[in-house]
Specification:
457 residues, Rossmann fold, globular
């Protein structure tokens, strides 16, 4: 098979650019040579599982001659139109700010509904609202850019990611193969009946739909989807994770207000109600007297939707304020550390400093932070509602808990902390073996096979 020209589409961009200080223009408007821009000042790589999967995969497939070139289209209103990045060219979509609000409302409605959370009051009649017109406008703008690129470059394959981009496949109006990767949970019982026909129409515009767990594959079949469904576990590139020396670890820990004898429970997640950091704060309060040196570190800020360089939605700030208030009410505010955004180097240090990690989500598409924990040799406690839960054998390579049971998470804390470091070490060692199923080396075979089949069909 000849190397492929691939168009990737995500909502979240690979790079987020600085909006400037409000007085001086950002550096990228003055100097468009990417090599001259400063990481962490002019731009940063977007956090989150989608970009951390797609970019390493693209680089690896280009290096191995499977893909010839990649053009990556995403929403990025505060960015240059085009950014060359080796064999990957970024194309950034901008829509007028007056339309951004409606798009954001619909996106959040779908997100909260699928995750079983209380969201904006759009519910059943979502597809007949003015806001949905703005959501459609964004997707059409994206599809029009992709179609114009296709006319120029003649792509072999379209690989669309994120529920926000679901209508794009239908709007492309092409017979070329299209693959859609659904990254969030899929449970038909959470989708209003009046949404079903529209969702099915959009999904069936793709030649294959990829989901992150066998549970979601079965749910999509039950939903009535007639097309091809493929389960591929999300993955990470282990080479992107460092193991800092002890001095660097303690330096980061000290900068975050941790003492040398603190026992650290770590959550790595954006500030979002679906991530259920409140359950971990309540669990900390329940065991606070038993483990006086235990501290909870919440690493992460908002998603691209919350970032000022992105959509500027206020969800993350609102949720963090609620968490801070809860910690104060429960008397553990001095034992909960909010780090905000951290660099990869800081995150590596926090993983290494942690005694164990927690994924407390009420509903989670997968949970790559669990794989990250295993790569850093850390035991992990995982909500049984996470997609990755199907890879965990309770008590062998991790601890599972029911997020609706208020006693479950405190009990898991006791199992890990009440018997020395033996239980955590055994869980981490077994987890490291499981992590191999979610690395890029493992994914290369399945991704190459699937995408190759799409082109050859």
């Amino acid at each position: 098979m000849e190397p492929l020209k691939v168009c990737v589409n995500t909502q979240t961009p690979l790079l987020q650019f600085s909006p400037g200080d409000g007085v001086h223009p950002p550096a990228w408007t003055l100097e468009r040579d990417f090599a001259q821009l400063t990481p962490g000042v002019d731009y940063r790589f977007s956090p989150g599982g989608v970009t951390r999967m797609v970019y390493p995969l693209a680089k690896r497939l280009i290096a191995q001659g499977v893909w010839k070139e990649v053009h990556w289209v995403s929403l990025n209103p505060n960015a240059p139109e085009t950014v060359p990045l080796g064999g990957v060219t970024l194309h950034n979509v901008a829509i007028d700010k007056t339309r951004m609000g409606g798009y954001g409302k619909v996106k959040e409605t779908i997100w909260t509904t699928v995750h079983g959370l209380e969201g904006p009051p759009l519910s059943d009649d979502l597809f007949w609202t003015d806001d949905y017109g703005e959501y459609t406008f964004y997707n059409r703008t994206t599809a029009e850019l992709i179609r114009s690129l296709d006319q120029e470059l003649d792509f072999d394959l379209f690989y669309v990611h994120d529920f926000q981009q679901l209508p794009v496949g239908q709007m492309l109006a092409t017979l070329k193969p299209k693959v859609f990767r659904w990254h969030i949970p899929f449970d038909a019982s959470r989708i209003p009946d009046k949404w079903h026909a529209t969702f099915r129409t959009y999904l069936e515009a793709y030649d294959a739909v990829v989901v992150s767990s066998d549970r979601y594959r079965a749910a999509l079949q039950k939903f009535g989807h007639q097309g091809r469904i493929v389960r591929l576990y999300p993955f990470v590139d282990p080479t992107e994770y460092g193991h800092p020396d002890p001095a660097a670890i303690e330096g980061v820990a000290t900068s975050k207000g941790l003492e040398p004898d603190d026992v650290v429970a770590l959550i790595v997640a954006r500030m979002d109600p679906a991530k259920a950091q409140d359950k971990a704060i309540a669990a900390l309060a329940a065991v606070a007297r038993e483990f006086p040196r235990l501290k909870l570190v919440l690493a992460g800020n908002g998603s691209f939707s919350s970032a000022q360089s992105g959509l500027g939605l206020s969800k993350s700030q609102t949720w963090r304020a609620r968490l801070e208030g809860l910690a104060e009410t429960l008397g553990v505010r001095d034992r909960v550390v909010f780090t905000g955004h951290v660099t990869q180097e800081e995150l590596d240090a926090l993983y290494e400093r942690a005694a164990f990690t927690i994924l407390p989500s009420t509903f989670e598409g997968f949970g790559l932070v669990v794989v990250e924990s295993w790569l850093h040799g850390r035991a992990t406690i995982v909500s049984e509602r996470a997609g990755i839960a199907e890879l965990i054998e309770d008590g062998k390579n991790g601890l599972l808990f029911d997020p609706d049971d208020p006693d479950a998470l405190p009990e898991r804390f006791r199992r890990l902390l009440g018997h020395g470091d033996g239980p955590g070490r055994r869980l981490a060692e077994a987890g490291a073996e499981t992590a191999l199923e979610c690395t890029i080396d493992h994914a290369m075979q399945s991704e190459t096979r699937l995408l190759g089949q799409m082109v050859e069909a």
